[in-house]
Design brief:
Layout lengths: L11 E2 L11 E5 L11 E5 L5 E6 L7 H13 L5 E8 L5 H19 L6 E8 L6 H13 L6 H7 L8 E9 L2 E10 L12 E6 L5 H13 L16 E6 L9 H21 L7 E9 L2 H13 L1 H8 L5 H9 L11 E4 L2 E5 L2 E2 L4 H12 L8 E7 L5 E8 L3 H8 L4
Parallel strand pairs: 5-6, 9-10, 11-15
Antiparallel strand pairs: 1-7, 2-3, 3-5, 4-10, 7-8, 8-9, 11-16, 12-13, 12-15, 13-14
């Protein structure tokens, strides 16, 4: 890296949630927005002159909180200070009242913090069409602000959850140019997950100052190969938001690729956690498309396979039904020759140059079954490799199996 300095060989994951990026404060509490009384209100406060960037749902139906975030990020050129997040009510499709409520919340938070309300973003998640219980939320804002602390990342990551089975948070650190750098990320998402964002909230925080244009590019690229490459059920949401913040002393340009590597690492870990936590899921499906003409083609085919309900159902039944994989790849509009394709499920080759070869169905079925019962995000990944043998590009997408439990959860969601 130059100058004779020594660096860690890789980013290191930190299990201690109290070791967070320098300068950021967090708070997560129960405000009574959920019947369960679980944590449901969160706040992130960043240092002055922090750089924010955000990417949001592609749905034509967007919650008022999304519109507020987009508007304020554009008007401020990314110079905002805080994000308040409520869970339990999406506050989407709630008309003028929903917009007024979101604006009132950010105004109240800004007043307590002493920050202009146009420097406050808001994210909401939960049941579409339900209003936020404003009295409960407003009454708890002083406590939310009082609890702001650099050690409270854990509580924030818990307060944003809805149907999630587990919190999703990762912190990494590394020594760069003689200083310790940390990147933290946390997210929620379990159902209504599909490429081009998902029903998810995700937040990335880095304690290195990076100019807006470069930061936007880093986050856009990371999103493309992470959150835009996951699928649970093919559904998108009204509230999807991915917001990334950086603040701190700048770093020399030569070290920016290391930061970029860390951002990619955290985003992919979060994305895989979301896909694995799909409602009722038992395993993660990882689809690797190799030797494509270009990366775009590879990603489109990988996403199609990972999003196929028939592939997901087959994996849940431990059925090595390779025809469903081929069909999903063929439905993309991407041109390829089946006579060139090699297909593997795990280590087991199914097709060689488009021709079915003799394989032991019972062994492939056993492989899937073992992964269905494997340790969470350790030995629970069913891998599908689709080799086009038509180029040098690669794309990866993630999904999960489709179970009866998914139907149960979503048939009773509001009841």
């Amino acid at each position: 890296m130059g100058n004779g300095e020594k660096f860690n060989l890789a980013w290191t994951f930190i299990n201690d949630c109290e070791k967070t990026p320098d300068g950021f404060l967090f708070s997560g509490i129960s405000a009574g927005l959920k019947v369960s009384n679980a944590k449901d209100l969160a706040l992130i406060l960043s240092p002055p002159n922090s750089i924010f960037t955000g990417f949001f749902t592609n749905s034509a139906v967007r919650a008022s909180c999304v519109e507020i975030c987009i508007s304020r990020l554009q008007e401020s050129f990314g110079l905002v200070r805080a994000i308040i997040i409520n869970s339990g009510q999406a506050n989407a499709c709630t008309g003028e009242r929903g917009l007024d409520d979101s604006l009132a919340i950010t105004k109240e938070v800004g007043g307590i913090l002493g920050i202009p309300d146009n420097q406050i973003l808001i994210c909401s998640t939960g049941v579409i069409g339900e209003y936020i219980p404003m009295k409960c939320l407003i009454n708890k804002l002083p406590l939310l602000v009082k609890n702001l602390d650099e050690k409270n990342l854990k509580s924030v990551s818990e307060a944003i959850l809805t149907t999630d089975l587990v919190p999703k948070r990762f912190i990494i650190e590394r020594s760069i140019a003689g200083r310790k750098v940390r990147i933290a990320g946390f997210a929620k998402g379990s159902g209504m997950i599909y490429p081009n964002m998902a029903t998810m909230l995700a937040f990335i925080i880095c304690d290195v100052g990076i100019e807006k244009k470069i930061w936007d590019g880093m986050i856009n690229n990371a999103m493309r190969s992470s959150f835009n490459s996951i699928s649970v059920d093919g559904e998108t949401s009204t509230n999807d938001s991915f917001i990334a913040i950086n603040s701190g002393e700048p770093i020399e340009e030569q070290y920016l690729p290391i930061i970029n590597e860390g951002i990619d690492l955290v985003c992919k870990k979060l994305a895989k956690s979301i896909a694995r936590d799909g409602e009722g899921a038992n395993c993660l499906i990882e689809v690797i498309v190799e030797n494509a003409k270009n990366e775009s083609d590879a990603l489109i085919i990988a996403r199609s396979i990972s999003n196929s309900m028939l592939v997901k159902a087959a994996i849940h039944g431990c059925d090595p039904n390779w025809g469903r994989i081929i069909a999903a790849a063929g439905n993309t509009g991407i041109q390829f020759k089946i006579d060139d394709v090699d297909l593997f499920i795990g280590e087991f080759q199914i097709l060689r140059k488009g021709k079915l070869i003799s394989f032991a169905k019972d062994k492939v079925s056993s492989y899937i079954k073992n992964k269905m019962n494997g340790d969470y995000l350790e030995n629970d990944i069913v891998q599908i490799i689709f080799n086009l043998n038509h180029g040098e590009s690669k794309g990866i997408a993630w999904g999960c199996d489709l179970s009866k439990k998914y139907v149960e959860i979503n048939s009773e969601y509001t009841t």
